Amino acid sequence: MSARLFDRDTILDITVNLVPLAILGFFFVVFMVLNPWDGGLTLKRILQFVLIGWIFTALAVLTYFAAKAIEGPET
Question: What is this structure's pTM?
Answer without folding.
Answer: 0.75
